[in-house]
Design brief:
Elements lengths: L1 H9 E8 L5 H11 L24 H6 L7 E6 L2 E7 L7 H9 L3 E7 L9 H9 L4 E6 L8 H12 L2 E4 L1 E4 L7 E4 L4 E4 L13 E4 L5 H5 L1 H17 L5 H5 L3 E6 L8 H11 L6 E3 L2 E3 L7 E9 L8 E9 L1 E3 L3 E4 L4 E4 L4 E4 L2 E4 L2 E3 L3 E5 L9 E3 L17 E7 L5 H13 L4 E5 L7 E5 L3 H14 L3 E6 L3 E5 L16 E6 L4 E5 L2 H10 L5 E2 L5
Parallel strand pairs: 1-3, 1-4, 4-5, 5-11, 6-11
Antiparallel strand pairs: 2-3, 7-8, 8-9, 9-10, 12-13, 14-15, 14-23, 15-22, 16-21, 17-18, 17-23, 19-20, 24-26, 24-27, 25-26, 25-29, 28-30, 28-31, 29-30
The protein binds guanosine-5'-diphosphate.
Length: about 525
């Protein structure tokens, strides 16, 4: 038990999120460098070169230069065992990001200092804020010309709706980047550009009160710093652990991932400001990670990760207790015991088989097609379930047909498997079988992923016909009313989901109200009830 407590207290599990190109991969790589998981930064990935990140599994990601799926990496630093969950960098994958955030205890948001909060990813960042978990902000690329730090903070506060609390403060940027001031230690670390940040940088640190400091950063920048510190002390929100924990206040760090500047101090502050895995909510109350037997929930399912082994992997977040390879656990939703086989974890550049893991860790296990997103696995006798993971309402719809009609079976298998992963939702015409398939997605890029994956993994070419619908409503009381008799609008379509539940698709939001007016008994809901 003492050992279990120790192991769990060492755990930190966070998701890293950014707009593409803000520097998430570079920062992750530098974390691994400090953790000793890799010796030379640059080996994990150079996306612009021919090398690809460990976390980029799918071909399409390489082609588009975006992360479509999220992956997990583990490393050790300063006695802590850290799990980093990578997230897709495109707004169309906000649902995937949300699920990943369910498995994380905190999030690190990387922002490009020259670009600030970028329009395309506001959705992703908002999803992050919606989760009410601690969010840490790393404003990157200060070795280049960057925007005014006050303007960057204002933007985060206004656009994302979260207050900011700068933990360090940049002195200049670009050619005039002198270093950063740490508001807690009251010390300035001087910036020296080094060989592309391939090695851990040696720091040169001065006390703010050291009379030598102005000589190093110039009198002009020293005076500017004095002025800034006065403003910050007067106007910036103070660090407040409770507000950070509730996701209302984000500690902000300035640095440069590429040159490795500010990365290690970020990591140190981050580890001291975050907590080890906390109790999680279940339908039978809170589950304490240390007191309880093994429990976990599935937050992601990914098929065909490795084209050589056409397997499906279910990723789970361990919430309590200890995991032993090959152990048998209760799969609550499936109503039976299952053996968790081929458990894997990602370490820097390889997938490795794990034989032990603890509350806070993320593992992937072989999924023979039995798991669904949100499922609970546990070893206690209580048979509790963890809070479900919400599904986002699709906003884009298309009719999907396979070009070669002989490939019907593969086609159906492909779309069903991809739907089980949660990347798409499948609907059918209300009065027919599987011959017409309508696919709904949260972000339209998922149509591209679907087409690509069907071709590459299932050898099926498809044609998509875009449909004009953008709003979806499930019919809550369909057992009580005559669904075929609903008096609709011209932009409305009646379809059913895979569980044969009827629902309505609308092109225009105002039609929803009109249909409700015309059908007094009709009850609609934005969400499907499972
Ligand atoms: P991601 O898409 O968020 O994972 O971004 P990457 O880590 O792949 O970085 C995108 C580009 O920005 C790459 O060319 C990096 O070398 C570059 N980059 C990342 N961090 C910095 C930084 O601190 N300073 C500068 N100048 N470039 C950076």
């Amino acid at each position: 038990m003492a050992n279990l407590r120790e192991e769990i207290e060492k755990r930190r599990t966070f998701a890293i999120i950014s707009h593409p190109d803000a520097g998430k991969t570079t920062l992750t790589e530098k974390f691994l460098l400090y953790g000793g998981a890799i010796n030379l930064a640059g080996t994990v990935k150079g996306r612009k070169s021919t090398k690809h990140a460990v976390s980029d599994w799918m071909e399409i990601e390489k082609e588009r230069g975006i992360s479509v799926t999220s992956s997990v990496l583990q490393f050790n630093y300063d006695g802590k065992c850290i799990n980093i969950l990578d997230t897709p960098g495109h707004q169309d994958f906000s649902e995937d990001t949300y699920r990943t955030l369910m498995a994380a205890d905190s999030a690190v948001m990387v922002i490009d200092g020259a670009k600030g909060v970028e329009p395309q990813t506001i959705k992703l960042f908002k999803v992050c804020v919606m989760r009410h978990i601690p969010i840490f902000t790393f404003i990157n690329k200060f070795d280049r010309e960057a925007r005014d730090p006050y303007a960057l903070l204002d933007e985060i506060e206004e656009v994302l709706g979260i207050r900011t609390c700068p933990i360090n403060w940049p002195i200049g940027c670009g050619h005039n980047f002198k270093g950063v001031y740490d508001r807690e230690t009251e010390q300035v670390s001087l910036f020296h550009s080094n060989a592309g940040g391939k090695k851990a940088v040696e720091k040169e640190v001065f006390d703010y009160k050291d009379p030598e400091l102005p000589n190093h950063i110039s009198q002009e920048y020293f005076e500017k710093l004095q002025e800034d510190l006065e403003i910050l002390d007067g106007a910036a929100d103070a660090f407040d652990e409770k507000r950070v924990d509730a996701g209302e206040l984000t500690p902000v760090f300035f640095g440069s991932a590429l040159t490795n500047f500010g990365v290690e101090t970020f990591l140190q502050h981050f580890l001291s400001m975050t907590k080890s895995p906390l109790p999680r909510k279940s339908d039978q109350g809170m589950i304490d990670p240390v007191e309880e037997a093994f429990s976990a929930f599935v937050f992601k399912i990914q098929a065909n990760m490795d084209p050589k082994h056409r397997d499906r992997v279910a990723f789970m977040r361990i919430c309590s207790g200890e995991f032993d390879a090959g152990m048998e656990v209760n799969h609550i939703q499936g109503g039976r015991k299952v053996k968790l086989s081929q458990p894997t974890q990602m370490m820097a550049d390889e997938r490795k088989i794990v034989d032990k893991a603890y509350g806070g860790d993320i593992i992937g296990v072989f999924d023979p097609g039995i798991f669904s997103i949100g499922d609970t696995l546990e070893l206690s006798n209580k048979k509790f379930v963890y809070e479900g993971i919400p599904t986002f309402a699709p906003e884009h719809f298309a009719r999907v047909r396979q070009i070669d009609t002989m490939k019907r079976k593969q086609f159906l298998k492909g779309v069903s498997q991809i739907a089980q992963e949660g990347a798409i939702q499948i609907f059918q015409e209300y009065n027919s079988g599987m011959e017409e398939i309508i696919v709904g997605v949260v972000g339209s890029l998922q149509f591209e992923v679907l087409t690509y994956r069907l071709k590459n993994e299932y050898n099926v070419e498809v044609r998509l016909e875009m449909l004009p619908y953008e709003h979806i409503r499930w019919i809550e009381n369909y057992t009580e009313i005559d669904v075929s008799a609903i008096s609709g609008t011209s932009d409305m379509k009646l379809v059913k989901d895979l569980k044969d539940r009827p629902l309505l698709l609308f092109a225009h939001p105002w039609s929803i109200g009109m249909v409700l007016d015309r059908n007094e008994n009709l009850k609609l809901s934005e969400f499907s009830r499972n």
